[in-house]
């Protein structure tokens, strides 16, 4: 068995090594000649998997270690009987950590309490659902928009414009789709952006969900929302003018915790074993290293939100990623190269759940638990 593997998938040797010969390649450079004699292909979001790539190959198994599948022509794979698997939810906790860490930073900088804000969540699936749960347990008022769920009769959802009007902070967590009743391409366009003036807009879904040109026009008119963007239209190229305007701009790394990326590999390994009709022998639990900080012990003098912020930023501070991106863009005009290099050399980051926190009082304890930390 021969597997072509994106070199940015962690633990592939440990998971797949006994079952196949592995050929590692940069994901954006995988070509038809590379996959011609392969049995399987393991990718991330930067490899377009379609007829052009696979028509002359004998690949029978394609796996993406990502939640998003907008880089995969699933319909074509289906017609060819090629087994396709994605990794639903693999890095959802990582994205939620990213959002919570960002919002706690924003609250400090802009002088508000996160708990007092109304948060709109657009797209209430694995990521949006977990985000909404954490924030509402923390005490925020959370407004939900998800028409594909609402139309099935599920309760608790509002119309998109209602959410944009009523929320102080809007977080986008839909997939990018361009067909069908609920297509999300440019879901947030001129009319929606007009409702967001003076508010905060965080996008950690896909760049194309926001009409970037409309956003840039709004920036010129000084009516744009404050932006926290992890995803951009046209990646890997980045619009430097837009990035300069962001409060936080990160190179599509919201899901890049070690746990999030590795769970993707583990999910593909389990699907590959099933495809081969063998029992999985390796688990992620035995591969993950011990977290670098064992225990955070908080003092009672630390206020509840400050306690949460300290715990969050001990695990992850989004400003580090944003600063690295801004700095690299200042010294390098080729934004695609900067974007790719930062993602390829991403430092190890652990999820909130990996940190044990000793709270000083019950208020701290319940807020920390709500936001995803493990209480000691
Ligand atoms: N920035 C990152 O690093 C990162 C990491 C993981 C996922 N993502 C992106 O986030 C997306 C969401 O991830 P997920 O795991 O929650 O996916 P999911 O499939 O579990 O949830 C997506 C939700 O969006 C809803 N939705 C679809 N169309 C909509 C519309 N028009 N308006 C409102 N809601 C709509 C769906 O009904 C669903 O509930 C992924 O598709 C991926 O593109 C980004
Ligand atoms: O869809 C996903 O799972 C995420 O966007 C994922 O983190 C993207 O990472 P990439 O495949 O681009 O490295």
Structure notes:
Residues 110-254 form the D-isomer specific 2-hydroxyacid dehydrogenase NAD-binding domain. It catalyses: 4-phospho-D-erythronate + NAD(+) = (R)-3-hydroxy-2-oxo-4-phosphooxybutanoate + NADH + H(+). Its main location: cytoplasm. Strand 9 (200-203), helix 10 (212-220) and strand 10 (226-229) form a beta-alpha-beta unit. The chain is 39% helix and 14% strand. It folds into 3 domains: 2-86, 3-Layer(aba) Sandwich (Rossmann fold); 92-249, Rossmann fold (3-Layer(aba) Sandwich), CATH 3.40.50.720; 295-375, Ribosomal Protein S8, Chain: A, domain 1, CATH 3.30.1370.170. It has 16 helices and 14 strands. A 6-stranded parallel sheet has the order 7-6-8-9-10-11, sandwiched between helices. Helix 5 (92-110) crosses helix 6 and helix 14 runs antiparallel to helix 15. It has 376 residues and is of the alpha/beta class. The structure holds nicotinamide-adenine-dinucleotide (NAD) and 4-phospho-D-erythronate. The site of nicotinamide-adenine-dinucleotide has 33 residues, from helix 5, helix 6 and helix 7. Nicotinamide-adenine-dinucleotide binds next to helix 5, helix 6 and helix 7.
């Amino acid at each position: 068995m021969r597997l072509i593997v994106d070199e940015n998938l962690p633990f592939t040797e440990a998971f797949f090594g006994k079952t196949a010969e592995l050929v590692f390649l940069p994901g954006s450079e995988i070509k038809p000649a590379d996959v011609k004699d392969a049995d399987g292909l393991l990718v991330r979001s930067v490899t377009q998997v379609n007829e052009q790539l696979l028509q002359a190959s004998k690949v029978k198994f394609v796996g993406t270690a990502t939640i998003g599948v907008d880089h995969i022509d699933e319909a074509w794979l289906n017609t060819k009987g090629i087994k396709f698997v994605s990794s639903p939810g693999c890095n959802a906790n990582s994205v939620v950590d990213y959002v919570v860490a960002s919002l706690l930073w924003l609250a400090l900088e802009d002088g508000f309490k996160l708990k007092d804000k109304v948060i709109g969540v657009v797209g209430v699936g694995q990521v949006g659902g977990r985000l909404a749960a954490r924030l509402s347990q923390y005490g925020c008022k959370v407004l939900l928009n998800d028409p594909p769920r609402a139309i099935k009769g599920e309760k608790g959802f509002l119309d998109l414009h209602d959410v944009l009007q009523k929320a102080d902070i809007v977080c986008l967590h839909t997939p990018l789709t361009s067909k069908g009743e609920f297509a999300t391409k440019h879901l947030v366009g001129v009319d929606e952006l007009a409702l967001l003036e003076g508010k905060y807009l965080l996008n950690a879904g896909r760049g194309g969900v926001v009409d970037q040109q409309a956003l840039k026009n709004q920036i010129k008119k000084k009516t744009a929302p404050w932006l926290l963007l992890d995803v951009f239209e046209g990646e890997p190229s980045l619009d430097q003018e837009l990035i300069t305007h962001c409060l936080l701009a990160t190179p599509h790394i919201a899901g890049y915790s070690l746990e999030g990326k590795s769970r993707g590999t583990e999910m593909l390994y389990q699907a590959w074993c099933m495809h081969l009709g063998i029992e999985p022998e390796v688990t992620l639990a035995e591969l993950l290293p011990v977290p670098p900080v064992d225990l955070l012990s908080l003092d009672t003098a630390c206020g509840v939100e400050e306690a949460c912020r300290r715990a969050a930023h001990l695990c992850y501070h989004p400003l580090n990623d944003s600063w690295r991106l801004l700095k690299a863009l200042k010294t390098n005009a080729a934004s695609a190269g900067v974007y790719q290099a930062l993602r390829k050399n991403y430092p190890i980051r652990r999820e909130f759940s990996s940190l044990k926190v000793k709270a000083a009082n019950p208020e701290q304890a319940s807020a920390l638990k709500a936001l995803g930390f493990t209480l000691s």
